[in-house]
Design a protein that fits this description.
The protein has a single domain, classed as 60s Ribosomal Protein L30, Chain: A (2-Layer Sandwich), CATH 3.30.1330. 22% of the residues lie in helices and 29% in strands. It has two helices and six strands, in the order E-E-E-H-E-H-E-E. Strands 1-2-3-6-4-5 form a six-stranded mixed sheet, with helices on one face. Helix 1 runs parallel beside helix 2. The two termini are 16 Å apart.
Length: 129
Amino acid sequence: MKKIIQPKDLSRPANYSPGVLVTPGRLLFIAGQTALDSDGNVVGIGDPAAQTRQIYENIGRILAEAGGTFSDLVKITRYMTDLSFKTEINRIQSEYLKEDPPASTGIVVKGLAREAFLVEIEAVACIDK
């Protein structure tokens, strides 16, 4: 069984769900999050650190809506348009993923869905609550 996770304070995407909670097993699959605020505006244009912070805030909202926290993340995949962003992404990420960080993959891509996006992060969580 699956349940769509759509926090009220997260921009509603047109053609995908921000999160899908699968039970039994309580796996939460979080779609690639970008630096959109609750109104759908891009946050931190030209600033990978600001974009990463907004992304983790969005992930946190999805986790909370499903009854989870950052400690429930088991896998993240980070997409960045420039390898030089890695240090800033890691710095911001460490503020959110303090204990037992999840498995992680970093991928450098030529571009993301909008030119203004510098970073995108998708995640999987196991919410055992």
